[in-house]
Amino acid sequence: MVRTPTVEDVALRAGVSRQTVSNVLNTPTIVKPATRERVQQAIVELGYRRHAAARQLRTRRSSTIGIHLDPYVGGVSGVVLDRFVHALTERASERGMRMLVYAARTAGDEIARLAELWEGSEIDAAIITGTFHGDPRTRWLGEARLPFVAFGRPWGEDDLAAPEHLWVDVDGAAGTRAATEHALGFGPRVAFLGWPTGSGTGDDRERGWREAMAAAGAKGPRWTTEEDVARARAVVAGAGVDVDAVVCASDSLAIGALLAQAGGSARVPVIGFDNTPTAEALGFSSVEQRPEDVAAATLELLMGPTGEAVTPRDVRAGTAHALIEPRLVVR
C-alpha cells in the first residue's frame, strides 16, 4: 500500500522546516522566491495533495479554540487582554472546550501559525484580537472556512450595519462619553489626551469626548501622543494644565497626565480608560472595559447560547456582533 505524502515529507525533500512548507501553502508571499520554488517542486515530485489530507484530518474534532498571545510590551498595557484570555479559558472549559495559546509577531506570521494548527486539526476555531481596517487575517480565515470571532470590529464604514465577520468589541465612545460627562462636573473646559488620528479604537474613544462636549456646549483642547507614559507627561506639561479636567484614551496616558502635574499647587482630575490595577492604586477614575463580558459574548457568537457548534456561520446584520458598553469607575 502506497503511503500518502505528508507536509513532513515535503519539508524533508525541499530541505526546509514544516513551518516553511505551511507558509508556502497558505501565505506564499512571505517566503523567498527561491525557497518557495523549491517547496513547490517537492510538492509536485511527491504528489502531495493538501486539501485531501486536510479533509481527512478535520474529521476529528480537537475541542480546542486557538487564540493569539500578544508579545509582552511591559508597562500597564495588556492587562485587559490578559483578563480576556483568562475569562475565555474559564468559560470555554465550562463548555467542554480548551484554549490553545499561540504566539506570532506579525499578521503574516499569525496566518501561517493558524494554517498549521487548522491543517493539523489542532484547533476547531480561532479568536483573534487587535483588528484593523483591511486586516488580512480575517480575509484568510474566511477563505479557509475556519470558524472565528474577532475581539475588535472590522473598522469599515459599515461595520455595525453589515459586518464582514463575527466580532465583539467594547463601545469606546460610550466609555469616554460617560467619562467626559463626569469630568464636566468639575468645569466646562475638559481636555482629551489621545492617540494620533487613524487608530480605529482611538478615534472611537475621541468621538465619545467630542459628542459629550458638543451636547454640553463646552470646549476643550485635544492633545495627541503615542501610547507612552513619558511622552504623555511631556505633552501635558508642555501644553500647560489650563483645564478643569483631562479625559484620556488609556490609563497609561492618564498616568502621564498625572505626573505632569506632580508638585503643582492645583491638580485637575484625570480620568483614564481600561481601569487597570494602576488606576486603582493611584486612585484615579477610569473606564472599565468588562473583559469578562467580552469573553462570554465571544463564545456565545462562536458556539451559540449553550451548544458547541463551531462550524462557519453566515454573517447577517444584527446577529453577527456584540458591542459591550463599558462602565465608569469613579474614585
From TrEMBL:
Listed transmembrane segments: none
A Pfam entry, by short name: LacI
Start and end residues of each HTH lacI-type domain: 5-59
Gene Ontology MF annotations: DNA-binding transcription factor activity; transcription cis-regulatory region binding
Sorted UniProt keywords: DNA-binding, Transcription, Transcription regulation
PANTHER family cross-referenced by the UniProt entry: HTH-TYPE TRANSCRIPTIONAL REGULATOR GALS, LACI-RELATED TRANSCRIPTIONAL REPRESSOR
Record protein name field: HTH-type transcriptional regulator MalR
Organism from which the protein derives: Microbacterium azadirachtae
Primary gene name: malR
